[in-house]
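Weekly modeling sync, notes
Attendees: S.R. (lead), two postdocs, one rotation student

Agenda item 3: backlog of single-chain predictions. S.R. asked that every request posted to the team notebook include the full sequence so nobody has to chase files. The rotation student volunteered to paste the first one in as an example of the format we agreed on. Action items at the bottom.

Example entry:
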Amino acid sequence: MSVPITLTVNGKAVTANVDPRMLLVQLIREQLQLTGTHVGCDTAQCGACTVHLNGRAVKSCSMLAVQAQGGEVTTIEGLSKNGELHPMQAAFRECHGLQCGFCTTGMVMSAVKLLEDCPNASEQQIREGLDGNICRCTGYHNIVKAIQLCQSGKAGQTAAA
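Predicted structure, as returned to the notebook:
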């Protein structure tokens, strides 16, 4: 039995027939072919699957696709506009805030929401705000630097110069 759902993904209207047990991350990756959203743990611990749903950062491996019915989803692919990286993406690149890259999309999505909610976040608040995301490579130092660079409004200026 499949259930029809409609939602907006990265600004585009989407209609899909989904199994009622299908996870949102499965819809995003398998049906919509937006593979930037990663599946890391399947237990909502690592944050690699983080997307924005109706303005909130959510772990798409822990919610059903049908729960997004009528919602607005933004994935990592939806952050860049007109071929330009989002300032957070540019900051991660400039500060080497990634190594293997597996956690990066979830980190970026969480960081964007963190600064939307708390634009003047201290280093401690940034570290606490990343609590639901795990990186096994970087030690977080450059990730925090990247978020602070984005916060300063200077991300992307080095590449443009």
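Discussion: group reviewed the output briefly. The mean pLDDT is 94.
Action items: rotation student to repeat for the remaining queue; S.R. to check formatting next week.
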